[in-house]
Amino acid sequence: MHIVYILKLGGGPESFVKNISEIFAKNNIRISLVINDEFDDNKHNFNNLIKVYRPEKVSAITYRIYVLFRLLRLPTKSILNKIYKDNEKRLWQTIELIDNKYPIDIIEVTEGTKITSIPQGRIVVTRAHGSNWTFRMFCSDNIDPYDKIRKKKQKLLMTMSAKNFAISRHLKDHLENELSLPADSIEYSPYPIPIKKFLNTKRSSSIDIPTNAKVILSIGRIEKRKGMEILVESMLEVWNHYPETYLIMVGKETELTLNKLRLLIPSEKFEYLINPGYLDYKLIPSIYKMADLYVSASEYETFGYTLLESMASGCPLICTDRGAMPELVEHRYNGLIVPYGDENALSQSILTVFNDSELRKKIVLNGLEYVKAYDIDKVGLNIIKQYSRLVTNEKS
Question: How far apart (Å, rounded) are the C-alpha atoms in residues 169 and 357?
Answer without folding.
Answer: 33
